[in-house]
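Protein modeling request. Please complete all fields; requests missing the sequence field cannot be processed.
Requester role: graduate student
Desired output: 3D structure, token encoding
Chains: 1
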Amino acid sequence: MTQPERLTAIAPGTPMWKAVPPRLVGPYLTGQRTVLAGYVYRAQDVRFHNPAEAYLALSLGWEDSEFTPHMSEIYLVAWLARAIDGYVPATGHGVPEFYVEPIAMPVGAGMCRLGPDGDQLVARYDGLAWQRMEP
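Delivered output (135 residues):
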């Protein structure tokens, strides 16, 4: 294994983040969407405390993006990486970025709402459905 492969490999159990486009939050939480795909990040590589910081840290300003730097909230899926997921290093925008082909939603994944005052866990995936958290 070469040094760059070792630096970009994602070990099982690594905390991960994926920003969820606004139009997909409902389908995820109602079970209409059960896969993760696209660009993802190791939690250790990005830091943010509000939607504007997340927009910058996660490079959400691509062409035709549904995200804006002025959003009042951004939803994120958080999960622990699994060996079977197949993360491929991507050309990042300052932080390591990975691409993953569609994978089944990992059991225990959390849907987090990031607002101006920080994040809040709104639901957890139990392997069959998202279970809403008590307010």
